[in-house]
Amino acid sequence: MKSLTETRSAGDPDDAEIVFTDLTPSQLERKLEAMGTPVGDDAIRRWMDEQGLRLRKIRKVKAGGESPDRDAQFQNIAELIEQYEQAGNPCFSVDTKAKEFQGQLFRKGRVRCTQAFEAFDHDFSSWADGVIIPHGIFDPLRNRGHINIGLSRDTTEFACDSLKWYWNRIGQQSYPGADSILLLVDCGGSNSASKYIFKHDLQTIVNAIGVPIRVAHYPSYCSKYNPIERRFFPHVSRACTGMLFDTLQRAVELMRKATTSTGLRTTVNVIKRFYEAGREATEAIKQTIKDKVRFHEMLPKWNYTITPQIGQ
DSSP string of 136-189? Predict the structure, then answer.
């Protein structure tokens, strides 16, 4: 990393990687004039463009760690997606988007308007009118996204209720002949691979819908490769950027506008149920999971199938 305005030693390992400046063209113009080399800021802007010195955001691309199962699980997921598509069965990419606050609280971004929207001068959560927890379900084959907004907490029960609502009202109609569902999820949060309570809540949903669910978790540090993170959530963020979530209806309307020229369309629903935090699996639940859930030979901690249990 090399600044135009500072001197680095030749031994700096980052010296040749990135050239940058934190000065604006106008500041550089004044600096060069003080040095006896007057150059207009328009010329400086053109030169910066030619050199590739453009405004850029920091890219969050460096992995915080590495999973030894990464390549094997990625290959496994790719094969599963192909199998499900060929069989006409659904593959849903699922995750919870970052929590938002409802009310007059600041949100990042800009929007064209005759005057700026007004928000509180501090982002105290106690000043919010409520929380908005967007649980997303993305169907890569149909290029359709859905958001279930929760108003309580991001729990395993909420995530599973969201999936049940979506299947009963949208998924089942889209795949009337489905005999299995593939669920692509990351390995933490409300769909944690290590939580018995997630598998228990998912079993309850499977029993209700009567269709087996095959779960494939993305390994640790790999959640950004989940299709929903790249093909759906960025468009939801874009549709909502710079706007206040002053009412719940406003948030719903904005998220529904998440569309693309390649055909992405978004539906939104609100789940008003209150969810209890801190639920833990009992020993009886753990034993039932061990007995009923079929863990696959291929990386069983990331891959398993939950089938309907009659009379449960």
Answer: EEEETTTTEEEEEEESS---HHHHHHHHHHHIIIIIHHH-TT-S-EEEEE-SSG
Domain 70-306: top CATH class:
alpha beta
Encode 49-79 in three state secondary structure.
HHCCCCCCCCCCCCCCCCCCCHHHHHHHHHH
Split at pLDDT 50, 70, 90, the class of 24 is confident
Q: Hey, is 252 helix, strand or coil?
A: helix
Within the chain, which residue ranges are assigned CATH 3.30.420.10?
70-306
Tens-digit pLDDT profile for residues 229-242:
999 999 999 999 99
pTM over 0.85? The answer is: no
* pLDDT of res. 312: 59
Residues 287-293: contacts with CB within 8 Å, 24+ apart?
288/200, 288/203, 289/196, 289/199, 289/200, 289/203, 292/203, 293/199, 293/203
- What's the pLDDT at 311? 66
Amino acid at 272: K
